[in-house]
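dumping this here before i forget
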Amino acid sequence: MKHAGLHIDRKQLVGDCTFLASRIGDMLACDGDLEQNVSNGEFIPEEFFLDLEEPWRGRIKRIHAEDEYSEVESAAMELSDAVSADFLPIVNCIKGYQRPLGGGLGSRKGEICYNQMSEAVWFKGKNFRPPTWGNTPGEAEMKRLVTAYDGKGKKVGEEWWTTSRVETALNKYKEAVEKANDTVLQLLRDLAAELKEKMNALIFISVLSVIAKTLCLHVSEGRRRNWVFPTLLSSDSDEEEAQAHSR
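structure:
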């Protein structure tokens, strides 16, 4: 078979197609695979997990990196627990300070936020500490807050805070994500190297698929618009006959 400047034996093409379909189908994930859903945490912004996991999730089937997937999910759960334990009581405490008429303690602010630049989940608050400490739930967690720093050891800002427990869980999660990402990329590189030997078949199939799809779309549109399709002549005699009728 010849096409696009390539010559491939029919039997070889069938064999290569079978091999390619098998290897690609075995490795790559399918759309709608529930095992590819990103992690989640009740009090952690969804964008955090999306940014860190979408680049590698949904690329390969989970079975090929089960350990890495499980490690990410376990670390995500640990991070969610740390955020809930260390930040949520503070948020609830600040909400309890709020006054309907505003002013005074009502100006205190605090929430769990995603810092995209540092790829971190921290507590973001302003004037949230009470003028005097009491036994209000959440105050003990406030005292454990420390200033948040980015990966270069630079202070992020006056309003960003974290705890040692959250930082430990956050670093563990990010390391698990990096490991999963590296594993997925390596598996895809290995697959690409394996398929490179069948490059001629891949090019042939790709071009043929484009042509076939174009023809199908052309015919479909022609039927919809009631186009008149030309009659294709199969021999010189048919061509002569057609010319005779046209005189």
